[in-house]
Input
Amino acid sequence: MAAAPANPGHPLDALAADEINQVVFLLKQAKRMRADAKVASISLLEPDKKEVLAWTSGTPFSRRASVVVLQDGKTYKGVVDLRSRKVASWEAVADGHAGFLLEEVLGSAEIVRHDATWQAAMRKRGVTDFAHIMCNPLSVGYVADENERRRRLMNVPCFDTHGEGNNAFGRPIEGLMAVVDLNERKVLRLVDLGPVPIPPEMPKYDYPSQNPPRSPMKPVEMATPNGPNFTIDGGRVRWQNWSFHLRLDRRSGPVLSLVNWNDHGNERSVAYQMAASEMFVPYMDPTPTWSFKSYLDAGEYGLGLLALPLSPGRDCPSNAVYLSGTLPDDNGKPTQMDRAICVFERNAGDPAWRHAETGSLGVESRPEVDLVVRSIPVIGNYDYILDYVFTQKGEVVVRVGATGMDAVKGVRSHKLTDPTAAEDTKYGTLIGPGVVGINHDHYVNFRLDLDVDGPDNTFMIDHVVPRTAPPESVRRTYWQVESMSQSTEGPVETHGHDGQLRLVNPNKTNAYGYNPGYVLMEGHNASSLLSEDDPIQGRALFAKSPVWISRYMPNERFGAGEFANESAPGEGLPRYTADKGPATDTDLVLWYTVGFRHITRAEDWPVMPTLWHEFRLRPFNFFDRNPALDLSPDFAK
Output
């Protein structure tokens, strides 16, 4: 019999190693999980929101785990109650599949390498030495055939890694792809479009390979010589006036909860929870070996599972504090994810505010310092930097940095003057000899359960409207603000919008009678150009509008639905908001998608310079005055 798990310190703490062990024990004891079953996920099933908000330190709280298991060729989901030590629910999943296991990603490559038909196809391409062939299993996206959709599938293209050094994706074996059944562990079929020459070069991006490498700079560092100004107690982070709870989730990566601002002794809520919900990456090449590429990276792979260890002094500054997470492996064994998150303070040399009085020449200026929470999931060829930035001005900035490597297609052309270049570059840019970077989009959806001074909020749209001045004015035009609420849940029409979007608490006022609010300052928010009847788009309809609102429901957490792998169109936000429920003076969730198109370029190869995209949550009449007014002009000695 497994020992009872130790008590966690907070209702939103991630499951500890002994709790994960207890979950597996209880499932096997109840004969729900067989000895040969595989664990897709075991994660915290959060207590009811009202329970969490009412909880005080030292008092008991409920503790449950959400479980997804693969066995008998099916996906099962269940709930285990760790307090009563019982399996509370258990059922087979009817639609979609669980995200991939690590052993599936690695094992499918071996299945392909040992398949006789694939080996024969490789020999036709002049490849007989398979020791230097790297196969890269990929999610299949939309599956049209209903019978085949029941299979657990991966598409597997391969790469020639002779002389690769640190670039495994540089020499694709184009026009050949294996379709693998993961349950039956076999190649179902090959997609063979005919041989294409393997790109001749293997460009390297390590420092010694550059000719000549740039000389090292004199040190430019951020440092906190007297120690950090933040504290981390369990999962609770406190810095300046901010406090929040932080944990690592297998699917979403960092989850930030109970985000509060201490307003002169009054703890005021800004957000109940913020986390990445889904990531949609569709490629714009309709050929059969590329057209399926429409990844839902969070649901298919996991942003927390792939949060590889951060490198001190490179991925995060030298003054960072590193946090680890605990996730189950494919067999349900707890595994520590070292340095999965870093937390650090950043002084970029900018003023938080300043003013110089002209007459007296007096100057008041305050140095600005931010607190950053960072993780970097590595999803195949792409590295995504996810930052949650807290400012001393009461703002929260969410940033997505895209770096890593273009997904490249092998072609015949080496230059645009080659006769095949026009055809080869129809869907991308020639970025190396025989290599085209295919154009694509990125849509990173964030679930923002904002509770502005409490859970009951209203979503407001402030329109800036031009007006004609009265005849007696020397002016001809001016503008005014017209505010209206969005009364029902669903997408928010923001195309061509000139104004602002904000969430307010209609039940409270500041000193001047205004309802306290937070403005969503939109940043990169391109919307998908794919048609809604395109099944690729149908799996990620959240990307058709950058902003959605929904009423809070505890089981509505993912913009493309719970089981995104091989999912059918219409899941997620369209289903959550289908009834168009009332969306005023109620507990609302704001969903924002950071959307950006990637028209590939030569400078992206062989590794992409980081490109940042962001949005900002900014107080609007939440305070009675500048919340950074009390900052010290100097740092402590």
User: Anything to note?
Assistant: The two ends are 56 Å apart (CA to CA). Residues 159 and 169 are 6 Å apart (CA to CA).
